[in-house]
Amino acid sequence: MNSKHIMTAFSCAAALCGSVRAAEANKDAESSGLNWAMGEGVTFNETPIVAAEVGLAFDSKFMSYGLVDNNDPILTPSAALTFFDWVTFGVESIFDTSRYREKAGYGNRALKYQELDPGVAIGHAFGPDDVAWLPTTVEFELGYMYEAHPEVVDDDTQFVTFSIGLPDLWFEPTFSYERDIDRDDGTYLNLEIGHTFSLIEGKEEGDDDILSFRVSLAQGWGDQRRVTAYLEDANGLNRQSLMDTCLKGEFTWNITDGVSLGAYIAYYDYLFDSTAREGAKAYEATGAYSDSYNFVTGLALAVAF
């Protein structure tokens, strides 16, 4: 549930060049049922065939489970291909923007990647029109990700993830499961509820909102292995525990078909376990003892074609 600067610039340039060529080819393809549209990808008689997306995200801090992995900003470029609206192959990479990690003994990683995450996922959304007995839309995703690091940063690991959500309900609940296969063999669960408010509606019925705002509240939980691995400095904490609480507000501006810009602010804290809270204070990569809460902001640009 995170390649990047150079790859994203190349991908965006390729996407723009490809879109021009595709638009020309599209005129001939329409007669055979094959079609391409920005933001929708390639379809055949309205059946999705392949869609692509590239993105670049900026976060004021690098957070993991409500803990500070980097107290300075990071950049995260990403790219993904989705086939038949079912299978997605993606990759993203995290770039430090400062010498922050040098303080933690990892060396100067400024503008160098410190994490590369290729993965594959199977996911789809089913609604009452697809399955008669469903009262509302159900979407799920089952994924695998390999997390690679330079040797000076950390060991590699692998994740298996699963999520299920009910996006058409007013409080949009989503439940997520994550298992770290190699590093700590631990399990992390997260439950999120939220609601999306339309600020500026689309021009036509069925269009995405031009501007929307979503507020959400999420709570994480870790088993003994996950908690011990990340909160080892919390004396006496050798058990499962509630972990991070996250309150987030996010704006999404759909600039044009297939192009969107998001902005968020989030508050993280360890609210429900005082021992875990002490471990969170001691977690920061520099070893600094501080408060258990953090405020984080970010921007994300995405281009789908």
Description:
The chain has 305 residues and is mainly beta. It is built from three helices and 16 strands. It has helices at residues 5-29, 224-230, 274-281, and strands spanning 34-37, 41-44, 47-59, 62-64, 67-70, 74-83, 87-96, 113-126, 138-147, 157-165, 174-180, 187-200, 211-222, 241-256, 259-269, 294-304. The strands form two sheets. A twelve-stranded antiparallel β-barrel has the order 3-6-7-8-9-10-11-12-13-14-15-16. A hairpin with a 2-residue loop joins β4 and β5 (67-70). The longest helix is centred in the N-terminal third of the chain and has 25 residues, at 5-29. The model is unreliable at 1-30 (pLDDT under 50).
Task: List the defining traits of the structure above.
disordered N terminus; 16 strands; about 300 residues; two-stranded antiparallel sheet; globular; mainly beta; twelve-stranded antiparallel beta barrel; single chain
